């Protein structure tokens, strides 16, 4: 009992603490925003690069295959930087990405071998290809141009183990620039043999708080040390450029150390021979490992602390005695040799002199760096991705930049056993190590999202000049030079990740897509959707200053592509050569800024109770209209080539069960619904009464353009097993005269539910009640054929027979009939007087003009139902009347008079009339009801006279009404937060079929594929409320329109397409104008609807962006469009999210399961409260004791632990 009381009190106490903590931390939880970076498998950037522009250009084919982030570069303006004996500067570039299966090590290491390839002449005089392994001495001879044997090339033969782990990759490029910030190339020596290039390069590890290289200070005196370029060439003749770099000559006291990249040298002492100083004792340490006291194994998850796992700097051999006169010693991972460096011993130290006082030595340390090499410093891997200079000489060339790639494992260390190297990891909320100068206060150049003029470029493309002068008139004059874009004293970049996961919304499905591959086999197929990449890591990037006080601190390049982005392809004056054009499609690119980072490009939280989904549209891009006659799957399949070109939302369909008969059999009806947004919709879209429509449609009407939300509804016949079926009008097909219902040969045996009436609850069609008695009325199929000889199927639809009193009305689509009276001739009833009204317009008392913005209330603008002519007298015996927009005729209907009625009888009391109403619907036609446009985009049945479904498209203008003057029709608009009108049954409570995001099993879960659908859709029905959908606003996404300045333009030789246009000095830049399209969006709010099996995806968005890495079973589908499900209760963005708690101590790692996180789900919440309460008051050995809640590890869980638990609660 005591234990229960304690736990009960604890829960009360924790609840009180929780309330206080939530109040105290509410503001902190909104402190920072996060950015997702998606990665997949081992997909990374090219290694090594072969294109000199690849490390800088986000559109380059060798850039990272998946998402990556481009940083604003830093500039180094140390006065000791000089290139070719000229005072210079350096520019340092950085990019970052995420590789779930990074191969470690990536490059060449000391266990690998090299083959010399050459040609051998045989005894018969013939020549054959041959190869042999190179020895250490031969590699040294090659390195110093002393090798005498023939070489065609040298091939790398990897001979090391490979390991795979999840890494964050950060890449740094150190480039030489002159005092005007133009790129320059450096050589090592002047003509006199003097070394004349000195620069800053990260060569030291002085900060134990960061793994890997973190400083320029080699000797620990607190002063940055310069690096000297000693030699440039292809040291191992593998076809890639290499460099040798070193320190300046340094005075080092006995006992002191100097470090240079992966080795440390310590002066042990100075020694005499024959009374003269001639030797120095040195200790050489390999510094590839970190001194971390434990090792978390990435394979087993064990924490190990044996000596082999706690390494740190390791002395290689004993004391090394080096002769001052010869004075050079080189070292590798395990070896030291008194000779010049080569690949296996690339690091070296050279002793130049010893002090007379026996306590000082003058020495130089240095190292060869090979393109494609991997080396390690302080538990970090560095891959030499590019060493570039335009001079391709294999010996004594030049260098413009060096690119290092640093892959850092996450959550567990990686033990490269055959190398005896442990790569140290970073954890959630631990600062990711960055190379200098980004890990220290530095000067940043704002190269991202700089104001620019529009006249130079309004599409995505490169801009630059055909000379080395770079003050581009396209850039705002306040920022068109590097000097103007410098920002001083920028804080160290503190970047960390907080989470990783698969985006579950990318792995989903859509069931019951019409499958017409065999028109004689009615059936469905379902689409298994696997949008890739789906694995992401969530990063927090810091807020940075902006030179223009704007936003856009980082540039995100996604693996998704934007095929609709228009690319520059004809700027000969601005690009280096035709090969420098962007190869379509453009990747999705946008800027990211901590300031605006809570706003996702698709899914956003509007308020605590409401989330929004953006739907992007562009220009007049729409779905095909009408759908092609041979494409019956067009209205249903999101990957169909005739589906909407831009974003669209597929909504779960409705099922109507009652009183539906198809071919005289009880049946059901399934109603499909999808929605999209067209900024420049052509109104009207289809054929209207002013056009010539027989045989070939010749439009004669005016066209208007406005911004419309488009709803599309498909009314399909299905049987009682929910399988698609087709229906005909009568047992023999079409009646011989289907409007003369008095003389039908066979009964009409197909009737169903169709929206034909307007009850003023919303604009447009909203009911199936034709006579206003409050009861829905079925629609009959009178006939199906091609009425206007245009090769497309049309239908005649009509009502059942109504008994209508004098003064009452019946409506059917765009016309209303009112019975005015019954009249005699020769003593007999033979005529009925009716009034016919055109119902295309709404009775709104005002009209907001979409062009002028004026509110008009003149009679021509306040229309409502309009009587056509006077009273119409209709003969009871012949009894057929048809009507159009302005005309009435006593004849059967046609395209221009498509609506019809027939009087089939009168009442004996002279106050009732029996009549039927109906209308022709033509594929490709546009008609209007109550201020709404309806476009007949498909009428389909596999036979000549049958119907399977009818598809109606309803484009609704937004913010302003649209006056179609030549038609005398006003299309009524909807406003922000006004419910968008939808057709029945979605505008009231309805029975929903859950076809989206079901629990599924497919034969290939990794691919997007179609499968035959034999599921029982009738079992997946749920009651759903009326679909209340609205939009909150619209805007251009400004982050899609941006730029990246100063991309290396390595165009020595020709410019444009003229080979005789030569540049003498080709060291220059280009910049990339970025216009990701579509950029115009409307934000929609969708209601939450019930789910059949617990999966939460209520809607399916199909984006115009494509996912080239998505594998499809059918190659013709590739590249597959980006597709994801949307749950209105989940406002989590696909890329950006807000409300991430700021970390108090960013240097304190958070291991996989923290104290207090009882369920290991990486948050400490109410579930953990309950578990803590169960464990409270126990001690080690008790059944309820749990070490995860023993916060101080003292063997019991008491008040001290409660206080500690309260501190971490809700984190």
Low-pLDDT runs of 5+ residues are 1-12, 14-29, 466-470, 571-580, 1053-1065, 1146-1152
Largest sheet: 11 strands, antiparallel
Task: Give the helix/strand class.
Answer: mainly beta
> Helicity range of the residues?
under 10%
Q: How large, in whole angstroms, is the Cα Rg?
A: 38 Å
Tally of DSSP β-strands: 76
What's the end-to-end separation, in Å? 32 Å
Mean of residue pLDDT?
87
Total helix count?
Answer: 5
How much β-strand is present in the residues? 35-45%
Shape: elongated
Question: Would you write up a description of this structure?
Answer:
The chain is mostly beta strands and 1211 residues long. Among the domains are: 98 residues, no CATH class; 278 residues, no CATH class; 45 residues, no CATH class; 373 residues, no CATH class. Helices cover 5% and strands 40% of the residues. Strands 2, 3, 6, 10, 26, 27, 28, 31, 33, 38 and 39 form an 11-stranded antiparallel sheet that branches. A hairpin with a 2-residue loop joins strand 50 and strand 51. Helix 1 runs antiparallel to helix 4. The radius of gyration is 38 Å and the shape is elongated. InterPro entries: Dockerin_dom_sf, EF_Hand_1_Ca_BS. One of its GO terms (biological process) is polysaccharide catabolic process. This is EF-hand domain-containing protein.
Secondary structure layout:
Blueprint: H1 2-25, E1 32-39, E2 68-71, E3 74-76, E4 82-83, E5 86-87, E6 89-104, E7 113-121, E8 127-133, H2 136-143, E9 153-157, E10 163-177, E11 198-199, E12 227-233, E13 242-247, E14 250-253, E15 257-260, E16 263-273, E17 276-286, E18 295-296, E19 303-304, E20 314-315, E21 320-323, E22 328-331, E23 336-337, E24 347-354, E25 360-370, E26 374-377, E27 380-388, E28 401-409, E29 414-416, E30 421-423, E31 442-445, E32 461-463, H3 482-485, E33 486-490, E34 496-502, E35 507-515, E36 523-530, E37 535-540, E38 554-562, E39 586-592, E40 603-607, E41 610-617, E42 648-662, E43 665-683, E44 704-718, E45 751-752, E46 779-785, E47 794-798, E48 802-805, E49 809-812, E50 815-825, E51 828-838, E52 847-848, E53 855-856, E54 866-867, E55 872-875, E56 880-883, E57 888-889, E58 899-906, E59 912-922, E60 926-929, E61 932-940, E62 949-957, E63 962-964, E64 969-971, E65 990-993, E66 1009-1013, E67 1021-1024, E68 1030-1036, E69 1041-1050, E70 1053-1055, E71 1058-1063, E72 1067-1075, E73 1080-1085, E74 1099-1107, E75 1120-1126, E76 1136-1140, H4 1166-1175, ...
Antiparallel strand pairs: 1-37, 1-76, 2-6, 2-38, 3-6, 3-31, 4-5, 6-10, 7-8, 7-9, 10-28, 11-12, 12-13, 13-25, 14-25, 15-16, 16-17, 17-20, 17-21, 18-19, 22-23, 22-24, 24-25, 26-27, 27-28, 29-30, 31-33, 32-72, 34-37, 35-36, 36-66, 38-39, 40-41, 41-73, 42-43, 42-65, 42-74, 43-44, 44-62, 45-46, ...
């Amino acid at each position: 009992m005591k234990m229960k009381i304690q736990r009960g009190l604890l829960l009360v106490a924790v609840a009180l603490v929780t309330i206080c903590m939530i109040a105290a931390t509410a503001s902190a939880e909104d402190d920072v925003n996060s950015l997702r970076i998606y990665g997949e498998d081992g997909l990374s950037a090219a290694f090594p690069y072969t294109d000199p522009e690849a490390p800088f250009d986000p559109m380059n084919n060798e850039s990272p295959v998946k998402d990556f982030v481009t940083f604003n570069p830093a500039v180094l303006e140390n006065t000791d930087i000089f290139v070719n004996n000229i005072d210079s500067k350096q520019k340092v570039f950085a990019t970052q990405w995420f590789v779930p299966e990074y191969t470690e090590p990536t490059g060449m290491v000391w266990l690998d071998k090299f083959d010399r390839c050459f040609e051998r002449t045989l005894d018969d005089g013939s020549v054959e290809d041959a190869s042999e392994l190179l020895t250490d001495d031969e590699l040294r001879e090659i390195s110093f141009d002393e090798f005498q044997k023939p070489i065609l090339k040298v091939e790398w033969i990897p001979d090391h183990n490979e390991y795979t782990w999840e890494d964050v990759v950060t890449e740094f490029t150190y480039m030489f620039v002159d005092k005007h910030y133009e790129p320059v190339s450096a050589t090592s020596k002047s003509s006199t043999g003097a070394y004349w290039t000195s620069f800053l390069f990260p060569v030291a590890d002085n900060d134990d708080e960061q793994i890997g290289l973190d400083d320029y200070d080699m000797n620990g005196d607190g002063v940055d040390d310069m690096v000297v370029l000693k030699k440039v060439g292809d040291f191992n003749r593998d076809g890639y450029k290499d460099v040798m770099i070193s320190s300046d000559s340094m005075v080092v006291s006995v006992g002191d150390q100097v470090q240079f990249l992966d080795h440390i040298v310590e002066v042990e002492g100075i020694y005499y021979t024959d009374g003269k100083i001639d030797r120095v004792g040195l200790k050489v340490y390999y510094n590839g490992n970190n001194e971390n006291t434990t090792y978390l194994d990435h394979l087993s998850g064990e924490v190990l602390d044996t000596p082999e796992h706690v390494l740190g700097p390791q002395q290689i051999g004993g004391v090394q005695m080096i002769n001052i006169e010869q004075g050079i010693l080189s070292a590798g991972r395990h070896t030291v040799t008194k000779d010049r460096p080569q690949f296996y011993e690339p690091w070296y130290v050279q002793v130049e002199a010893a002090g007379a006082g026996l306590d000082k030595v003058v020495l130089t340390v240095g190292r060869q760096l090979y393109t494609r090499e991997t080396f390690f410093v302080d538990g970090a891997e560095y891959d030499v991705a590019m060493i570039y200079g335009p001079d391709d000489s294999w010996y004594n060339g030049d260098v413009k930049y060096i690119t290092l790639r640093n892959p850092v494992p996450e959550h567990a260390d990686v033990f490269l056993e055959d190398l005896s190297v442990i790569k140290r990891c970073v954890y959630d909320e631990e600062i990711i190590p960055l190379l200098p100068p980004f890990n220290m206060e530095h000067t940043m150049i704002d190269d991202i999202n700089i104001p620019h003029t529009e006249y130079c470029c309004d599409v995505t493309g490169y801009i630059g000049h055909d000379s080395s002068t770079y003050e581009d008139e396209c850039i705002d004059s306040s920022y068109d030079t590097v000097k103007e874009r410098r920002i001083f004293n920028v804080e160290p970049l503190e970047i960390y990740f907080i989470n990783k996961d698969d985006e579950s919304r990318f792995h989903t499905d859509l069931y019951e897509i019409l499958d017409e591959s065999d028109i004689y086999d009615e059936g469905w197929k379902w689409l298994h959707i696997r949008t890739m990449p789906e694995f992401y890591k969530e990063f927090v990037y810091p807020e940075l200053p902006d030179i223009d006080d704007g936003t856009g601190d980082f540039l995100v390049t996604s693996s998704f592509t934007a095929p609709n982005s228009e690319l520059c392809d004809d700027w000969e004056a601005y690009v280096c050569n035709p090969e420098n054009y962007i190869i379509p499609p453009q990747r999705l690119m946008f800027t990211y800024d901590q300031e605006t980072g809570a706003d996702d490009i698709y899914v956003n939280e509007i308020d605590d109770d409401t989330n929004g989904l953006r739907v992007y549209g562009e220009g007049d891009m729409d779905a095909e209209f009408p759908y092609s006659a041979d494409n019956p799957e067009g209205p249903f399949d999101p990957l169909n080539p005739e589906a909407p070109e831009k974003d669209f939302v597929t909504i779960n369909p409705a099922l109507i069960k009652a009183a539906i008969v198809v071919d005289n059999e009880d049946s059901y009806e399934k109603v499909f619904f999808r929605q999209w947004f067209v900024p420049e919709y052509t109104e009207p879209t289809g054929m209207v009464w002013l056009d010539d429509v027989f045989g070939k449609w010749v439009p004669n009407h005016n066209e208007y353009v406005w911004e419309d939300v488009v709803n599309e509804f498909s009314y399909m016949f299905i049987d009682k097993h929910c399988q698609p079926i087709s229906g005909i009008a009568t047992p023999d097909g079409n009646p011989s005269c289907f409007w003369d219902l008095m003389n039908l040969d066979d009964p009409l045996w197909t009737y169903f539910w169709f929206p034909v009436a307007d009850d003023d609850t919303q604009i447009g069609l909203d009911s199936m009640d034709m006579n206003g008695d409050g009861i829905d009325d079925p629609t009959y199929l009178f006939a199906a054929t091609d009425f206007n000889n245009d090769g497309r199927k049309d239908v005649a639809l009509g009502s059942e027979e109504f008994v209508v009193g004098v003064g009452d009305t019946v409506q059917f689509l765009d016309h209303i009939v009112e019975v005015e009276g019954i009249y005699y001739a020769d003593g007999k009833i033979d005529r009925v007087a009716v009034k016919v009204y055109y119902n295309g317009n709404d009775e709104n008392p005002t009209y907001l003009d979409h062009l002028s913005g004026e509110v008009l209330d003149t009679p021509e603008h306040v229309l409502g139902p309009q009587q056509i002519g006077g009273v119409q007298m209709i003969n009871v015996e012949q009894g057929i009347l048809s009507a159009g927009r302005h005309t009435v005729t006593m004849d059967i209907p046609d395209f221009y008079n498509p609506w019809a009625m027939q009087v089939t009888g009168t009442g004996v009391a002279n106050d009732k009339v029996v009549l039927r109403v109906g209308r022709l619907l033509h594929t490709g036609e546009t008609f209007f009801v109550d201020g709404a446009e309806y476009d007949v985009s498909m009428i389909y049945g596999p036979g000549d006279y049958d119907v399977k479904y009818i598809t109606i498209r309803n484009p609704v203008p937004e913010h302003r009404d649209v006056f179609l003057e030549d038609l005398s029709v006003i299309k009524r608009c909807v406003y922000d937060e006004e419910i968008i009108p939808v057709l029945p049954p979605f505008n009231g409570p309805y029975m929903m079929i859950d076809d989206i995001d079901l629990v599924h099993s497919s034969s290939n879960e990794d691919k997007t594929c179609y499968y035959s659908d034999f599921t029982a859709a009738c079992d997946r029905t749920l009651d759903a409320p009326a679909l209340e959908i609205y939009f909150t606003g619209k805007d251009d996404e400004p982050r899609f329109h941006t730029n990246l300045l100063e991309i290396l333009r390595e165009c020595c030789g020709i410019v444009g397409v003229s080979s005789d246009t030569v540049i003498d000095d080709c060291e220059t830049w280009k910049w990339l104008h970025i216009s990701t399209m579509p950029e115009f969006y409307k934000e929609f709010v969708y209601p939450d609807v019930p789910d059949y099996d617990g999966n939460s995806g209520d809607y399916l968005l199909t984006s115009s962006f494509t996912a080239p890495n998505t594998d499809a079973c059918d190659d013709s589908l590739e590249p597959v469009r980006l597709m994801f499900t949307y749950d209105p209760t989940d406002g989590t963005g696909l890329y950006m999210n807000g409300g991430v708690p700021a970390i108090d101590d960013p240097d304190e790692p958070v291991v996989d399961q923290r104290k207090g996180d009882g369920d290991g789900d990486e948050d400490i919440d109410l579930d953990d409260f309950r578990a803590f309460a169960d464990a409270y008051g126990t001690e080690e050995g008790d059944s309820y004791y749990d070490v995860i809640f023993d916060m101080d590890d003292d063997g019991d869980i008491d008040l001290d632990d409660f206080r500690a638990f309260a501190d971490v609660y809700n984190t």
